[in-house]
Amino acid sequence: MIEFKNVSVNFKLDKKTFDAVNNVSFRINKGEIFGIAGSSGAGKSTLLRTVNLLQQITKGNVFVDGDNITCIKGNQLRILRRNIGMIFQHFNLAGNLTVYQNIAFVLKAAGKTKKETDSRVKELLDLVNLTEKINVYPSKLSGGEKQRVAIARALANDAKILLCDEPTSALDVETTSSILKLLKELNKKFEITIIIITHELDVIKSVCSRCAIMNKGDVVEIGDVYEIFTKPQHDFTRQLISHTFNFNLPDDIIENMQGPIIKLTFQGDNANNPILSYAANTFQIGFNILLGKVEYINDLPLGVIYVHLIGEEEVLKLAIEYLAENTANLEVLYNGI
Ligand code: ADP
Hints:
The chain has about 325 residues and is of the alpha/beta class. It has 2 domains: about 1-245, Rossmann fold (3-Layer(aba) Sandwich); about 250-335, ACT domain (Alpha-Beta Plaits), CATH 3.30.70.260. It has helices at about 45-50, 75-85, 100-110, 115-125, 145-155, 175-190, 200-205, 225-230, 235-245, 250-255, 275-285, 315-325; strands at about 1-15, 15-30, 35, 60-65, 65-70, 85-90, 160-165, 195-200, 210-215, 220-225, 260-265, 285-295, 300-310, 330-335. The strands form 3 sheets. The chain has a 6-stranded mixed beta sheet. It has a 4-stranded antiparallel beta sheet with strand order 2-1-4-5. The chain has a 4-stranded antiparallel beta sheet with strand order 12-13-11-14. It is elongated and about 80 Å long. The termini are far apart. Adenosine-5'-diphosphate (ADP) binds near residues 20, 38 and 41.
């Protein structure tokens, strides 16, 4: 378990200090895949790096498995870092070392013998499906392969926590999904706690169970990923999510409509019910679907449709009330009544 308690990190810039992380408190459970999302400069990376003390903490405390690590030094810090693996956007492999040497390096530093190192490197490469590249230099590997080596290296000393700093931001869509699949497998197999920071909400959507949303050093929202994506509470989260759904109506469509335009969100169970046609029949209104899409969040369906409603004022109000009660969320985008 990782716990941030009133954590702030200040930087000095031109004699002024500013809070890159501002009084953040929350917990990450053992064995979960936790995401931290937000735009660039939000403080995600700074916060993540407090967990292995690559970043000093200005105020507050960080606990790892119940131990306050905020001020640890020397041997204690070495042990902490050995138990916490980390991977980065640009992989950070040593270019002058082969795949074998990149991984063996951290095993030797932890005092493993040559025999132990050899067998562990083989085991790790098998785990990340890269056995045949053992003697290859990083320059001869694809981005996805480099990240696989980085993952193997990060887990070499049986890390129970894996910190991922924008792990897929330098990868194409297909490679991204194979790396995320690997992280998911490793999480399941070894119950590793994984923290992923990313500006790509698609990453959060596909692998994380819970997430925190950061903006300008603050954690503005935290919770179950599905809940946050279906019912964002904070304006910043709403904005962030609307970008990832890439799912907005052109303004001129809205301006030229008579009658309301609503956005309906359907979740898991209610996604299959014919709620819209039931409302149309019951209240004698017409409807026109302007746009629709189903997304999968953590393997659960989330449907969003934009609908133009047509009818008399009174029945439209009743229909909207009914739809609001029977869908996960209803937003009136344009009143038009
Ligand atoms: P994110 O990971 O969300 O993109 P960062 O944590 O990297 O954001 O950075 C948060 C803010 O702190 C940014 O304004 C960044 O420029 C600043 N920052 C990060 N590291 C340092 C540093 N070592 N010295 C000064 N400012 C820093």
